[in-house]
Amino acid sequence: MRTGLIAQKLGMSRIFDEKGTHIPVTVLSVAGLQVTGVRTEEVDGYTAVQLGLGNKKPKNCSKSERANFAKAKVEPKAKVAEFRVPADALLEPGASLLASHFAVGQLVDVAGITIGRGFAGGMKRHNFGGLRATHGVSVSH
Fold first, then answer.
1. Is residue 141 pLDDT above 70, yes or no?
2. Are the C-beta atoms of residues 35 and 72 closer than 8 Å to each other?
């Protein structure tokens, strides 16, 4: 079993198969993804891998976070997440993960966080055009 990944969405694109039909794809960046900690059954009561992505200034970390990153011998990370894995799938602290971590054709579960915009009107939410600004259109636009 493989562990999860943390990635940053770069955008959308498409690829073409042998028949010429296009398949929409999401482009993700996993640059700088490292193992920042390992949880074991003996010490923590469960087995998991802690991953970190993106760099963060050490002055913006708490002392305990700095100690954890120093123990793993990695730079402080902006985003940290933990993934439960079986004991035989544990990785070494400081190891880098790449997109080649997954096998070709493997299915993945994806979770994302959207950028909140609060309550938006129809023009922003659904791209409504609105009315013309001239030629007799009064205050209805």
1. no
2. yes
Cβ–Cβ under 8 Å, residues 80 and 4: no
Mean pLDDT over 86-102 rounds to 88
Burial class, 47, CB count within 10 angstroms (exposed 0-12 / middle 13-18 / buried 19+): middle
Record the pTM: 0.71
Residue 32 burial (10 A CB sphere; 0-12, 13-18, 19+) = middle
Give Cα 61 distance to the centre of its chain. 20
The three-class DSSP label of residue 64 is: helix
The pLDDT, as a whole number, for residue 49 is: 92
